[in-house]
Design goal:
- It comes from Streptomyces cellulosae.
- GO terms for molecular function: hydrolase activity.
- This is HAD family hydrolase.
- InterPro entries: HAD-like_sf, HAD_sf, TPP-like.
- Helix content is about 35%, strand content about 25%.
- By secondary structure, the protein is an alpha/beta fold.
- Strands 4-1-12-13-14 form a five-stranded parallel beta sheet, with helices on both faces.
- Strand 10 and strand 11 form a beta hairpin.
- Helix 1 runs parallel beside helix 9.
- The model has no long low-confidence stretch (mean pLDDT about 95).
């Protein structure tokens, strides 16, 4: 039976220049490979060693990129190794099969959101009214499924995020602060549900996962074994679970370590 590897991308496997955390002397810094260019500028990286590991993983397991990115944002990324047959975008709102969104999956997700939580319009209106233009750079809607703000972190009042989280919780939504972005995401919109669907389709009996943010917690809990890096929301909160390994590595070297762990367990075929 195939092993399924579902991994978050940003700040888990790939890293912006600001998130690399290259704390070693310059002469000992790892060689990097750029895997994303946006508006003619390099944007995301992994180490060359990680690139080799990812290529090997594509041959050893069913590798499924699992991201909160929109489809357009995901398609900017050029990962090493064989092109993944499956990818999960928009936090589970789109299940891509050979690069094309499965319409039946998307329809089932949108129907569930309509039944189980407050509308996107209500959340968007609340963000527009309560977020201060002093520290908000952009208001964004992703795939007509969820909303996020791009903010100036040094100006962002900490209490505002906590108050938003309470307001959202009462309406069936989750709030996640990741770098300069504040996400408001419906609770029924999960990576784990889409991963379970891929496992059903592929016949995988072993699922491995990795992620760094609050939005990855359900993904990690749904896996047979998972890893989180030493940075991010989950690390900051000290979050853990019985089958989750909290790694000490931070930044781009954490991505390399996660891929080593994926490959080790995938080759064993068991946890």
């Amino acid at each position: 039976m195939p092993v399924l590897v579902a991994s978050d991308l940003d700040r888990t496997l790939i890293y912006s220049a600001a998130a690399l955390a290259l704390t070693m002397p310059d002469a000992r810094a790892p060689r990097l490979l750029c895997v994303e260019v946006h508006e003619s500028r390099p944007l995301s990286y992994l180490t060359e060693t990680a690139a080799g590991l990812l290529s090997e993983l594509g041959d050893a397991a069913v590798f499924v990129p699992t991201t909160t990115r929109t489809r357009k944002q995901y398609q900017r990324i050029s990962l090493p190794g064989p092109p993944p047959t499956y990818a999960i975008c928009a936090n589970g709102g789109h299940l891509l099969v050979d690069g094309v969104s499965d319409p039946d999956w998307h329809a089932s997700v949108t129907a569930r959101l309509a039944e189980e939580c407050a509308s996107l319009d209500e959340v968007r209106e609340h963000l527009m009214v309560t977020a201060d233009p002093l520290w908000v750079r952009k208001h964004r809607i992703a795939e007509d499924l969820f909303a996020y703000l791009v903010v100036e972190r040094e100006l962002l009042p900490e209490d505002w995020v906590k108050e938003l989280a309470v307001w959202a919780e009462n309406r069936g939504w989750t709030v996640s602060l990741q770098g300069r972005k504040i996400y408001a995401v419906p609770k029924p919109l999960t990576k784990s549900a889409a991963v379970r669907e891929v496992a059903r389709r592929t016949g995988a009996t072993l699922t491995l996962a990795a992620g760094d943010s609050l939005l990855d917690a359900d993904l990690l809990l749904a896996a047979d074994q998972g890893w989180r890096p030493g940075h991010g929301e989950l690390a900051d909160a000290g979050w853990t679970a019985p089958a989750i390994s909290a790694l000490p590595e931070r930044g781009v070297l954490a991505g390399e370590r996660i891929l080593r762990e994926f490959l080790r367990v995938a080759r064993q075929g068991t946890v």
